[in-house]
Amino acid sequence: MPIKDYPEKIIRQQIIKKIKPKIKKGRSPHSKGYVSIDGKIEAKVKIPNDHSRLMRNSKSQYIASALKLNNDEFNDLIDCPLKGPKYFELLRDRVQHRQ
User: Fold this and answer.
1) How would you write 17-64 as a 3-class SS string?
2) Which of 14, 56, 75, 93 has its CA 20 to 30 A from that of 8?
3) Packing angle between helix 57-66 and helix 71-79, nearest 10 degrees?
């Protein structure tokens, strides 16, 4: 299933609320979020701006990929079935399988 179209504001809120990345503001207008497991950065994601513009599938794909989520998992993260602890469990599994 493709990623649904969501307002950038909603994507931003769900990432910040559920994943709680360490956010750093650089020179770019977008902030970067760093997701760590056991003190090691495992994912870096561009945090969308806080406005209501619709983010299409093609753009959301980059965020899902950065979070190491497939399309269905990303939709679940934004729509609410996927909670923060489950995300970290998925990420931890993917990191362990990579090694």
Assistant:
1) HHHCCEEEECCCCCEEEEEEECCEEEEEEEECCCCCCEECHHHHHHHH
2) 93
3) 90
- Terminal-residue alpha carbon distance, the chain: 28
- Identify whether the C-beta of residue 22 lies closer than 8 Å to the C-beta of residue 34: yes
Give the pLDDT of the chain (99 residues) as one tens digit per residue.
899 999 999 999 999 999 999 999 878 778 999 999 999 999 999 999 998 999 999 899 999 999 999 999 999 999 989 999 999 999 999 988 776
Is residue 45 within 8 Å of 35, Cβ to Cβ?
yes
Q: What is the pTM of this model?
A: 0.88
Q: Work out the number of other CB atoms within 10 angstroms of the CB of residue 18.
A: 18
